[in-house]
Structures are given as C-alpha cells and as structure tokens.
Amino acid sequence: MVKTSTLHRYALALGSNRPLSAKRTPRAIVQEAAGRLGEIGRIVATGPILTTEPIGPSLREYANSALLIESRLTPPEMLRALKAIEADLGRRRHRRWGARTIDIDIILWSGGRWSNRWLHIPHRAFRTRDFVLSPLMTIAPRWSDPLSVLSIRHLHARLRKAAPLPRPRG
Ligand SMILES: Nc1ncnc2c1ncn2[C@@H]1O[C@H](COP(=O)(O)OP(=O)(O)OP(=O)(O)O)[C@@H](O)[C@H]1O
Ligand SMILES: Nc1nc2c(c(=O)[nH]1)N=C(CO)CN2
Prior knowledge:
The protein is of the alpha+beta class. It has a single domain, classed as 2-Layer Sandwich (Alpha-Beta Plaits). Helix content is 28%, strand content 22%. The protein contains 4 helices and 7 strands; from the N terminus they run E-H-E-E-E-H-E-E-E-H-H. Strands 1, 2, 3, 4 and 5 form a 5-stranded antiparallel beta sheet that branches. The protein is globular and about 45 Å long. The model has no long low-confidence stretch (mean pLDDT 91). The site of adenosine-5'-triphosphate has 12 residues, from strand 5 and strand 7. Belongs to the HPPK family.
C-alpha cells in the first residue's frame, strides 16, 4: 500500500513531435505540459528542452525534456493525471510510436519500483533512450535506477559509449 499523504518525487519524461498550430510547436507544447504539471505538484527541477531525431517510424523531430515533480499523488493517480493532461493537450491514439502531440512518461519514483498491468516504474525502456537520459542527466545525474542500481549519469555514459548518437540539440 502506498499512503496518499506521503510526498512522492517523480522523474517524468516529456516528448512531442506534432504541432497543434504555428504557435503551438512541439517545444511550446512541452512547455505547456510542464505548466499543467505544476498544477498537480511542485516542480522541483526542469531539464532543457532538446531537439532530438525520431526513434521509430515517425519522421518528425521531437522536442524532449524531463522534470522532477513532488506530489502527494500515488503512482496510479499520477499516471491518471498524466493521461488527463495528454488528453487535454490533444493527444489522440495513433499508431504506436507515430507522431504525438505530447507523451508524458513516469521514469523514476522516490518509492522505487511499481509494477502492475498498467504501470511499470522504472519505465521499462528508459535505459536505452538517449532522448530521456540526456535531459534527465542535467537534473538528476545521481538518481539511481532501482533495478540496475546504476545512476542516471552512469546509464547515460553507458548508452553513449555503446551507440554514439547524434547529440540532441538544445
Ligand atoms: N512508467 C510509465 N509511464 C507511463 N505510462 C506507462 C508506464 N508504464 C506503463 N505505462 C503504460 O503504457 C501505456 C502506453 O503508453 P504510451 O501510449 O505513452 O506508449 P508509447 O509512448 O507508445 O510507448 P512507450 O511507453 O514505450 O513510450 C500507458 O497507457 C500506460 O498504462
Ligand atoms: N526522439 C524521440 N523519439 C521517440 C520518442 C521521443 O520522445 N523522442 N518517443 C517515442 C515513443 O514514446 C518514439 N520515438
């Protein structure tokens, strides 16, 4: 059981590659999403918004960022709140990994692990995603992944070593 009264800390990853209008670019949408997240908790740190090459079938560049948030929401409550923000910002269900208005994932949680049918913390794929590790690296380099027991700094360096990637642009 996770008590609702507990103050939780989450590392969240944000990504967008579908503009909503000329003004609401992926970068602006990531900023908008961060503003909305400020309504469900206290933003403790905000990573840079980086322009990244798409991984997967989409051809459009992404704006990616990460932030740390403190909130009394439990992990399932947080997931629900994130889905509501995604829906508000116009995310529609498209094909998997297709262009998306906004995707907000829970990467790490101060409570360590969480696993059920709908939610896995740590996020199952984050260790191999430079677009998650790069912005997270600037705000939480020492946060340790409870499964591999490696820090974000270590995971980031390991990934860069294994597969030198085009560096995300700030
Ligand atoms: N840590 C997590 N953060 C967010 N969603 C998660 C997490 N673990 C499991 N999920 C589940 O994954 C489902 C699909 O999420 P989403 O549509 O963002 O996937 P995707 O972006 O296509 O792929 P990926 O999760 O690999 O980024 C969500 O509805 C949610 O139930
Ligand atoms: N660069 C980049 N590529 C992606 C991203 C993303 O956020 N950034 N998200 C995906 C599905 O979640 C698939 N591919």
